[in-house]
Amino acid sequence: MSDCLFQRYRTHVLDALRRIVPDMGEELLARVELTPTREAAHGDMATNAALIAAKPARRKPAEIAAELAAALESVEGVTKAAAAGPGFVNLTLKPAVLQSVARSVLAAGEAYGDSRAGADVKVNVEYVSCNPTGPIHVGHCRGAVVGDVLANLMDKAGFDVTKEFYINDAGAQVAALAWATYWRYLQAIGSTIDAEAFDALTPGGLQYRGEYLIPIGQALAETHGTALADEGGRPAKPEKWFALVKDFAVARMMDGIREDLKLLGVEHGVFTSEAKVLADGVTDRAIKALEDKGLLYEGVLEPPKGKLPDDWEARPQTLFRSTAFGDDVDRPLRKSDGSNTYFANDIGYHLDKVERGAQVLIDVLGADHGGYVSRMKAAVKALTDAKVPLEVLLCQIVHIVRDGQPVRMSKRAGTFVTLRDLLDEVGRDAVRFTMLTRKSDAQMEFDLDAVVAQTRDNPVFYVQYAHARCRSVLRAAEEMLGKEAITPEALLNVPLDGLEADVELALLRRVASWPRTVEGAALAREPHRIAFWLGDLAADFHTLWNRGRDETSLRFLQENDRAATLARVALVAATATAIRSGLAVMGVEPVEEMR
RNA sequence: GCGCCCUUAGCUCAGUUGGAUAGAGCAACAGCCUUCUAAGCUGUGGGUCAUUGGUUCGAAUCCAAUAGGGCGCGCCA
Predict the structure, then answer these.
(1) Which candidate, A338, A396, A436, A500, has a CA 20 to 30 Å from the CA of A71?
(2) Closest CA-bearing residue to C1' of B32
(3) What range(s) does the Arginyl tRNA synthetase N-terminal domain occupy (predicted)?
(4) Are A356 and A160 in contact (CB under 8 A)?
């Protein structure tokens, strides 16, 4: 675990504050923060301590701030502490303190920024969770990346994270998949039945007509020959084939989905089957638990306002009293055929996650599931007596555009629909990084040309370029000083007091803000902050680099000044490490050079 | 009709959970640049934080109402 500058000095602030204003409650002290300043004129850090303390002390903030500043001025490493504005205290640190940040980074390596804030709380992050009825689609892509990076982030922040995928393999959709696969199987064994005839035979009609099921039908034919059909390749009764074909198709679909996700760099630790949760009786147990709490009843729902479904009719059904937990209406658990609704099974699944030890549940869902959130939260609240929180991250739609024009998702027109096509076109790193350049709950345009453009305004490129430049300097430094001189271990012992230029200190300040960025982003469940921090860090590094163009004295490698060179190499190595630490959370590969 | 999310510079977006004079990039304008790694650099202009009210030392941030955009609204997942 790396020590965080801000945490360290915050304890000094609290110590001083306790002396000046005794008897402050813990909850008030918790609101005291020490943050980076927005402007250089305000020093390195600022605290709101005097503003917080003013009320309980019944004193003016400026007064307390002045006393606090006087006390903090004597703290080791502080050159200046000044009251400012409505009652802030600004701290200016000795350059040596900022310089030591480079050493912390080199000592910690990519573990720099690791935090214990999560206190090993068991968090289950469920994401992607698409139907296993076809290849994974670009529509799932944002949730996949957001979920994965959130999980990485929380892991880095000290949570005990499980990455989980829920396989929706129990509903009508997989039944339709089984029928469609069977159709392809019949074709593979030479049956002449056409789509229309089979469509008429299939409950709910033949839904999945995509070519991706052809090889699966063929594989079934190879294994089972004609055994799954009646004579002449005529369709047999479902009893003869349905369960087998369904399981086979789902398994094959999941193989493909797993493979595609792996190309995106997403690997879940746990896959949970809806059918298995159901078969194991967890779902029944969950429903029983709700019943025991008196939260189920037979009732008739009001028809929905606005557009009415064509076949709507009032009907008594088993309802969960979700309104008791903040939902708008009570929700049905059984379909008219007696089977569970998706919601009912999902209640079972969430109980399953809790029974496996999760203390916090996080679902990453598409925005079209927004209407589902309050009922699921209600169910989890009811099941766990509000002991296990369910948090939901909604990801808004991504519009794929090329050159500002929307890309229509049409298979017939040959424009891509699958995640794999997107990855083939722009690459994994561009997809992952770009998906996090917006808050999850904001809509986003994904421009196929812009995300691979090698320009300043492409954050993926800009961050990669910064790392490549760092590596380039380190390679040149190796030429100049020898390999042993610039290992992280060797650089740990290099004097850093030459790093005093404003651009160098600004870079160090940014690097120093990584631990608190990790904690803040993890606690707020906002993985996009990592992408923005990386962009800021890259900008600071490029600024320093560019300054060296005009002022040769600021260049990293100085032929005649070994001490200055070593200090700067340490800074560059620390910067590269910080970038890698951030990219590791993003699941993006750092590059050694741009090509 | 109801619920949830969103509205910040001409454009695309941040804004560290209520802090100081609201910030980047693009575009515009003005200079510079032939390079330690090239895909540029420096500077300038640009704002009623959708609108109105409220909460308090202090609001883009919290609350209420209004306007506009998105999503959802029994047995799809």
Answers:
(1) A500
(2) A550
(3) 7-93
(4) no
DSSP letter (8 states) at residue A268: -
In angstroms, the CA of A2 and the C1' of B36 are apart by 32
**Is A518 found in the same domain as A499?**
yes
Residues A253 and A297 in one domain: no
Q: A338 with A258, same domain?
A: no
Condensed to tens digits (0 to 9), the pLDDT of residues A367-397 reads 888 889 999 999 999 999 999 999 999 988 8
Instruction: Return d(Cα A14, Cα A595) in angstroms, integer.
Output: 50
What distance in Å separates the CA atoms of residue A414 and residue A423, rounded to the nearest whole number?
Answer: 16
Those nucleotides of strand B lying less than 7 Å from any protein Cβ are 1-7, 12-17, 19-21, 23-26, 35-42, 57-58, 70-77
Contact A347, A337 (CB under 8 A): no
Torsion sign, CA atoms A409, A411, A414, A417: positive
Rounded distance in angstroms from the CA atom of residue A55 to the C1' atom of nucleotide B64: 27
Q: Domain span at residue A228?
A: 172-263
